[in-house]
Structures
1.
Amino acid sequence: MVIFRGFSASGISRTRSMDSRPTIETETLRFLLDFARSEGLSAHWDAGRNVVFSLPEHERAKHYILVGSHVDSVPRGGNYDGLAGVLAGLMCLVKARRGGEPLAQPVKVIAMRGEESAWFGPCYIGSKALLGVLSEKELGVRHKEDNSTLDAHMEAVGIDMTSVRASRPLLDRKAVAAYLEVHIEQGPVLIERNLPVAVVSGVRGNFRYKKISCFGEAGHSGAVPLAYRHDPVLAMAELLNSLDVAWHDFASKGRDLVVTSGMVSTDRAKHALSRIPDSVEFSLDVRSQDDEMLQNMHDLVLRHAERIERERNVRFDFGDVLWTKPALCHRQLIAELTRSAEALGLEPAIVASGGGHDAAVFSQAGIPTGMVFIRNRNGSHNPHEAMEIGDFEIATSVLYEFLITLQKSGANKQRKPVPC
Ligand SMILES: [Zn+2]
């Protein structure tokens, strides 16, 4: 599929998002718009000031498949997070326009703003605005540098804020038969399994505690015997170890789960090599595609904490918890994307997504959603993202195969999302 060769996103670097000043986000959208028009495609700004591309004959289609991803990134992010997916969709349109096999039904490709939370905190700003689910609280958050609200920034870039504030979708949901997103993988699974691409089963939900405190009793490390110790660090370690044991058990039964405590610290003002600390703070991030699994793990966290409090005479203060529901990909779309991969001679593989994506917002809005991951070395949200262009071509070919054969299988007729 020669048309997918020789196109690299590496010339575009991005950091800024949903910012009213002339931004790299807007410049990237303009670049793509000019590129698409130079290829004879239709390209226009939508009500959310995203850019939508299509074949000219599909510009006014009443029903269509939507393919998309985001163009913004994080500070010191890589070149491929988001943008690779936009380009995969765009390349499919270019190929169809240049005389490739015709698309089975109308396809629109969307390059969205504001998926990351780089400037404001909340993520999925662009897709949430499109689907009418951006909350008043989210619109009120302030830009980290200029302190003005997200609402003001969105208005300044020309977004239809009357609808956004009233939670009215900017996009006619009924017109979207399915949403497809190609994205670099942000974990090591495809590298480890030596696979160029995989179909995604769903985006993991999570519960997160940003700051759990555990309080015990300070003392001299050499002088206080075991029976008199109330060490919060060992209490925290016991809690995390209990979760680790449970995780191993669930994983051995094939359940989807990941557990992380990414921030751990004793009080820097007081801590010392020879001092039993009186408190420790740590974060907890538990993710799964399975809502019930998350509930079970949450119960387990609280039960173990209670037990450890009794046994060690310490106290946990959990602070606020944030819950995000899992977003499952559509079973039929998973099957169709897998079939498309097999038609190209690829080994079929289905993996869960640990990171969040715009696809989750579409899935939660009841739009059948499918995703394809591209192998990517060195993780994501750093300048060392390393997607091979050959893998990008393969992912784009899978998407194209899907788009030219979808109607024959009737996969888009089943609208209700079904757990995988
Ligand atoms: Zn992304």
2.
Amino acid sequence: MIPFNAPPVVGTELEYMQAAMSSGKLCGDGGFTRRCQQWMEQHFGSHKVLLTPSCTASLEMAALLLDIKPGDEVIMPSFTFVSTANAFVLRGAKAVFVDVRPDTMNIDETKIEAAITDKTRAIVPVHYAGVACEMDTIMALAKKYNLYVVEDAAQGVMSTYKGKALGTIGHIGCFSFHETKNYTAGGEGGATLINDPSLIERAEIIREKGTNRSQFFRGQVDKYTWRDIGSSYLMADLQAAYLWGQLEVAEQINQRRLELWHNYYQAFKTLADSGRIELPVIPANCRQNAHMFYVKLKNVEDRTNFISYLKEAEIMAVFHYIPLHACPAGEKYGVFHGEDRYTTKESDRLVRLPLFYNMTDINQRTVISTILSYFA
Ligand SMILES: Cc1ncc(COP(=O)(O)O)c(C=O)c1O
């Protein structure tokens, strides 16, 4: 069986996890957490990076930090993971879904302004497949209407938009280090990027159960106390040790994934040219991280047949999100603004192919030849 995904393993994880175990500190904010955070601050150019248990936790932190309240509205695509919406709905907000662009499957930046009301507090662009949303337009709208931007960059680690790292453009950015992502913290993990310096102090407090324990550990205060609402949003240092092994070779992982991505692209270009499938589009101002390789088939039936054909050949290819507005909770907690021109139609046609760091060339060749035989 060729799996759809396998968690990345680079070989140094055990050594670093052992080092964490012998350091005498396994909880959050240990030595490996600091190393990962500093590396990301320097590499991506964020004022403050805080490791968290998941991107879900990072999005929840963002909603707390922005004081999202009942009655507020938050704009996002419907074609996304549940956590993008849940984080804000948990604070009582309504998710306002806007259609996606068919080329990138990202929120259509030209449809956002019409969805803004006097209740809108934030825009949450999701960088699907690690390909950037049109951030200049989104940031200009945020400025014009005094809104916050929280980038859901779960899939966007190491991607850029006009040279800027994804996750560092909005006021807050959220990364995922789940095992399905390009880099993992041993299965689960995330990071909150605080790009607006005025939010840093409160972000640390919210992450530390509403206390100023981070200031206490830095020796800035002589005791720590309950200051605000908060929760436990720290990553265990054992997980940060796993992640450190991967960040050290981040570019190597990136290059290998890009190589696999381009192999697929080249192999299927003729099929795309003849109109049989559609391939992903990477806008000129975006540098992507090959988080995902998807193709679009004619319709949902064609996709079902395609997935079954690959499964018979012991290859796992999978579709993606069921648009949130069509889900029971989406109907209850959200509303689709404007016409659903592309979200449902395009998500029905999309299928993701196996692509992971440790994928072998021979396995990829098998996937490619099986797909070519399906279309033959
Ligand atoms: C767009 C998006 N946002 C958020 C998440 C949640 O990430 P995590 O599993 O780290 O909580 C995911 C995970 O797949 C995702 O794809």
